[in-house]
Amino acid sequence: MSHLYVAVLAVIVAALLSVALYRSSQVKSKADYLVAGRSLPAFVLVLTLLTSWIGAGSLFAGAENAYRNGFAALWMPAGGWLGLLLIYFIAPRARRFAQFTLPDLLEARYNQTARVLGTIAILFAYVGITSYQFKGGGNVLHLIFPDAITPELGTYLIAAFVIVTTALAGMSSVAYMDVAIGSLVTVICVIAAPLLFFKAGGWAGLHAVLPPTHFEVLGNLTLVRALEFLVPTLLLMLGNQVMYQKFFSAKTERDARISVIGWILGTVLLETLIVSIAVIGSALYPTGEAAAQPYEIIPYTARHGLPALMGALLLGAVFAKVISTASNYLFSPATNLVEDVFVRYISPGASNKKVLIVSRLAVVLLGCWALYQAIYAPSILAKMLYAYTIYSAALTPVVLAAFYSKRVTAWGAVAAIATGTVVTLAWDVPQVRAVFPAILAERDAIFPALFAAVAAMIVVSLVTPAPDAEHLAKFAD
What we know:
Elements: H1 2-24, H2 30-35, H3 42-53, H4 56-69, H5 75-97, H6 102-109, H7 112-144, H8 151-169, H9 171-199, H10 202-209, H11 223-239, H12 241-248, H13 253-284, H14 289-292, H15 297-305, H16 308-346, H17 352-376, H18 380-394, H19 396-404, H20 410-427, H21 430-433, H22 438-441, H23 446-462, H24 469-472
Helix pairs in contact: 1-8, 1-9, 1-16, 3-9, 3-12, 3-13, 4-7, 4-13, 4-18, 5-11, 5-13, 6-7, 7-8, 7-16, 7-17, 7-18, 7-20, 8-9, 8-16, 8-17, 9-13, 9-16, 11-18, 11-19, 13-15, 15-16, 16-17, 18-20, 18-23, 20-23
């Protein structure tokens, strides 16, 4: 069986590396590297958006949530589904704006300070997201090769592969790797879920083994806890720089809008299947290694609950999905360092060749930072919620206000970004949380940080002059 797993992984690695090498030969300019020459059609956009969104957060943290709480774990992906309904209307506006990074948008709508603070928030959030992709991928390799690869060694191997393939061709490499990965994952999950469902004895078998709460809307969660899963996912989706960069890379506004429809359908299908596989796995393997490490339930179920070839393909799909998401979230902050720091402040007249060299160096440096965090991250789920909260509280309110509010001012946005970032970072310091009542201090940072950021944005905007109509024109329909 091990030879089968080696063969599947070897084919996937060779295919992804071939795509990266080929696309790197097509990169000639900064626009080619950062936004794929603004050439991505709707079909490619659908698969790259789907693949970049669903990674270790869904396959490990979401699966752990499903193992413990049953179908109530759908509260987490449901936040993304709600966000996608709003993104349908944002996508063409984002493509019309057609810049390189989200801080480009922040400076154009607000000011230079908002751009700098936005860049800092993105670096903290996205390097954190990249780190738990590395960690999740290391766990997959250890599960496949338990005697040869430790989780730490697997993390190093995943990090090295992601850094190399991402540095080669930038957005072009990321997007076209996603086409192959998105197609593979969707097909395999559609086949694997029914096979596991019938192996567990159908609904009767699941109900006989699992507690009734696994089939309830809230399950073991309180409503507040459910919203602590839903809201960060919703807000990350709405302000997600990876998504905006994909829209900036679209051929046309029409391609951007059409891609969202496919993204909605694909995300609802795939995330429901992932939660279902995890719940079925909790019925098949309620004790032992799976119970001790429930975040591994999907790869564990693939290895032990499916026919050899199907299990190898599902494990390979999980492996590829982690690589894809890591590539997306590593590449995104690298573009911030290049576009929002190097080109903006250090070398405004840099040639395309120089920008490409610095871009690849930025990928390597941020990849090493993410690897350091991955080695010392205590929990994938905790790291995910931390990263989502920084982004959700600090950036999403001002991004939405850029497109939908005429009254939010530049300094209101600056206040929101700074407040959301500071509150989220401070919330992890026990001495800070001890100041608040226990009922608040026991909660995750999302609601305190979000409330503080929005309040700061509103108050400061009310006491500063409103932006003029000419400045707002490019953000309106």
